[in-house]
Design a protein that fits this description.
This protein is mostly helical. 57% of the residues lie in helices and 0% in strands. The protein contains twelve helices and no strands. It is elongated and about 55 Å long. The mean pLDDT is 90.
Length: 198
């Protein structure tokens, strides 16, 4: 890792994805399994359903007919997912103001309770939206490949946990360097094709 840091230079990991917390998760759901360009196109169509191009509120999603969300490009499953997210936020069950003061594990648990939000999305939210410093997303394919390449070990869960132990409490930073070692940019919320089951 020391050699990798020396070769790549200063870490450029910057938290703060576009929009507020709700919009960030909404974008992640919209963009699942899509290219960045397709995801942005569909998100803009969804945004255009709402008044004056202002930010999308949970109430906007809830009162939008399913057929209109489908016409904007959401699949039937994603339509269910965005409405579940909006319903949880609207009801206060998912309260971001309170949630972001909780531990990483508590935030992950709350987010994966939303239909269509997996652990990878929750971990990327922690890392790229909230700037949590010690996220280690062992389901991310890029990280697994980087560990295999740099350390010559199979990326099993025990091996991944062991190799990352010395990096606590800065495993988010280590992750960024590992992604860069593959000449990749860091993953973006909304593209879950980089995750693998563990």
């Amino acid at each position: 890792m020391r050699a990798l840091i020396k070769r790549i230079g200063p870490c450029e990991l910057k938290p703060g994805a576009r929009g507020d917390h709700f919009t960030t998760i909404l974008r992640a759901i919209v963009g699942q399994q899509l290219s960045s360009r397709a995801a942005e196109t569909i998100f803009q169509r969804v945004a255009a359903l709402h008044p004056n191009g202002r930010k999308i509120l949970p109430a906007d999603i809830l009162r939008t007919p399913d057929k209109d969300l489908r016409a904007a490009g959401l699949s039937g499953a994603k339509t269910i997912y965005v409405k579940d997210l909006a319903s949880r936020v609207q009801s206060g069950e998912l309260n971001f103001a309170r949630l972001i003061r909780k531990s990483d594990d508590d935030i992950i648990d709350a987010l994966v309770a939303v239909k269509g939000v997996g652990r990878w999305t929750a971990e990327m939210f922690l890392m790229f939206r909230l700037g949590r410093p010690d996220v280690w997303a062992i389901g991310d394919l890029g990280l697994r490949n980087a560990v295999k390449n740099l350390y010559g070990i199979e990326p099993t869960k025990p091996n991944l946990m062991e190799v990352a132990e010395p990096w606590r409490p800065w495993r988010s930073i280590a992750s960024w360097y590992l992604w860069r070692s593959l000449a990749n940019t860091a993953p973006s919320l909304g593209n879950e094709t980089r995750k693998v089951p563990v």
